[in-house]
Amino acid sequence: MKNKIVIPMVLGGIICIYVLYLMGWTPVYTLDDAYIVQHSVNNFVNFKSESVFLDSAKNSGLTSIVHVGLITLIAFVFDTNWSQFLIASLSYILFLVAIFLYSFKSTKNIVTSFCLTLLAAVSGYVIEQFFNGLETGLLIFLVTISLILFRNGVPQQKLAFALLPVLPFVRPELSFLSAIICVRAAFFYFKNNQKSEFSRAFFILVIASAMVAIYAIILTGNILPNTAGAKSYFFAESCKQLDEKIRVLNSGIGRFLSSLGVLSLGFIAILFTRLRFVFLTFISIFYILYLLEFSGGIHHNNYRYQYVFYAFAIIGLIDFLSLNLVAKYSKYLSLLMLVLGLYSVPKNIHNLNTSIQFTQNENFTVGEWVKENISKNDVILIHDAGYISTVTNSKLVDIVGLKTSYSAQVNKVTRLVNCGNDPRAIDAIATKFNAKYFVVFGMWDDIFQLTNSLKVMGWKVEVADKSRDGAAYRVYKISK
């Protein structure tokens, strides 16, 4: 087994190097929010308080304090940009190692294990999700480990319970997965009359929970992040008609499954395994909550939020192929699935490369324009609050509210109450902070009518970056 572990490590290493090649040998992240992480890590490493965003609560805008904490530790030694890439690479390689070892233990077949590991490595947008600069890859890895450790109800080692309180601080949705796994474990202990075992497990759970909660309070001043609330107020989808939300949700689920290709069969396969209760309960809670609060969110960033289920699909396939009736065919079935799965890889790599180039050509160039052309005394309204915050000394106001608390409060009583676009929201935010410029992605501007809202409320809106004509991100000079 020690010799075989080299297989997933080499596979993961090759793919990490290839991704770095696509990035131009310097890490580039496809999501602007990744640079909010960098901004916060830079503050931690330099022991600085918030100096760019106005009305920003302590380290606000952080969804995953576990992810940020890991990057910060490495950033004391390496550059923040590279630290982010190292955490992504480590998560990816460890994920593949976990899948390979679990598959080999279950199927006892090296060919099956390799095929399933490679399938897990490249299906859907998983490479992009691991290297988008956010916590998605770390989430996939930790969910995989949790499912493996608690597959039989209770783990062999009680220390595994210390992992469960960590999950909600990787992404808040994982609090439900942790709770489900805990309830299932408690059921197994009491069913087998192992109350003393339960007491020891519960003690570890409580201690770990307390430690993570203290860490969260020290880092952000709160146990729960503000990001979900801020986004729900801005996008204002909870108030929409139920039939419309169901349509949007169904569309997002269908597109996610389609993007996974043959791996999506794992969601059927897992129904024949010991993890079906965990899967069915968690997936039901997840989609009901998104249906009620943020149905459009499951479409965002190539279905990023739905990748919380990625581990279930691959674990489902492994467990299914290890069933007695199927095991003797596992090698041939896994080979067939791999061939079918590899069919979509070129398209997905092309999409990844396009996203990398977009960041380089759009986020980087608008950031440099702002840095060179706008005074540090001027206040800038921004919708995407990431990359610009890492290069400018100007004061920034995040109109979504991830970093600027006042924006979230305004969106809650305007956009959310009126179920969508409300010109008073951006007007109130711009007026309070005496904003002079507005940087916005054209697509979001069209959807949310942001510059038009400023005009409706009496603002003069002029294109400031005329030299960047045709760019996706535009800079407007605003005055009233």
TrEMBL record:
It comes from the Bacteria. The keyword Membrane applies. The chain crosses the membrane at residues 5-23, 61-78, 85-104, 110-127, 134-154, 174-190, 202-224, 252-272, 277-295, 307-327. Keywords: Membrane, Transmembrane, Transmembrane helix. This is Glycosyltransferase RgtA/B/C/D-like domain-containing protein. It comes from Acinetobacter venetianus (strain ATCC 31012 / DSM 23050 / BCRC 14357 / CCUG 45561 / CIP 110063 / KCTC 2702 / LMG 19082 / RAG-1).
